[in-house]
């Protein structure tokens, strides 16, 4: 693992050489950090799966440097997709298209479709444009763990792996891109993310397909995605806290003291954008060795709140198997 300054042109030059020779480069995006490889080199892409310990049936998102690159990789661009590209690219929206054969099957886990996005982070754009080609990149975390929003998260997670990390500061959104496909001119949301439903509905009719797998649900969106190591429970009120040896992720600053070992609030005033930016980094912070459980306060499901709650609900699926030491109960 090596960590280099993403804003230094020499670092970017070095990262491009690594990508060209089939290596892995982790880079910042406006959503979360990505673990990138040359999307047209199946051997390089295989390294992503190995490094992340990611199942091969989970397709990767491909990152582009210009809107015009899309037509080289997709069969056709639906009119609504063109409108979405005009409005949201560069930015945190991934659009699923029918792919062309030039994209190796390993990238899309054998699917005939491909998820494309053009990130807006200057370091990501500079890297992709200097590389002159598409970069396949899932979030730069071991499979199933939470997405990194800071370079040091990536460094910590891939300490012993052959990965070069471009440090570009904190990811501003802090939550992954929204994933959509277009079906009969309708915008189908596969994963809630940094662009909320309200924004999408200004472009066209929007439906949610998040839970329905098989029809147009995202394959690979497994129930344990985004989970911390410790069990997580969503609570509506601090009265539900039973275990003192715990962490508490509050949405707003609680009005009363709370008897948990660690606590962080996502936003003092309850600002949803500020909360999203802190979301993964605070969860990573609260996922401590010495606690038994993480409590997470329910977040209002409007705008980006929906994306955060989707991730909390997935993380909380582990809770059922929790075995709490009763002596530590309050
Ligand atoms: O914000 C983001 O999207 C970040 C940054 C790095 O761009 N990337 C990211 O990638 O979150 P990842 O691999 O952690 O999540 C990508 C998800 C996959 O789990 C899969 O469900 C969905 O995108 N996906 C990718 N290609 C797809 C396809 N062809 N059809 C359906 N879902 C797809
Ligand atoms: Mg991910």
**How many helices?**
9
Terminus-to-terminus distance: 43 Å
Number of strands: 15
CATH superfamily of the largest domain: DHBP synthase
Order of helices and strands: EHEEHEHHEEHEHEEEHEEEEHEH
Looking at the structure, the CATH topology of the largest domain is DHBP synthase
The major pleated sheet works out as: 11 strands, mixed
With strands numbered from the N-terminus, the spatial order across the biggest sheet is 1-8-2-3-7-4-6-5-9-10-11
Q: How does the helix and strand content classify structurally?
A: alpha/beta
Which geometry do the CA atoms define?
globular
Mean pLDDT: 91
The CATH first-level class of the largest domain comes to Alpha Beta
Residue windows where pLDDT falls under 50 for at least 5 positions: 212-220, 321-330
Overall number of structural domains: 2
**Which distinct ligands sit in these coordinates?**
threonylcarbamoyladenylate, magnesium ion
Strand content: 15-25%
CATH architecture of the largest domain: Alpha-Beta Complex
Helix residue percentage? 25-40%
Rg, Cα atoms, Å: 20 Å
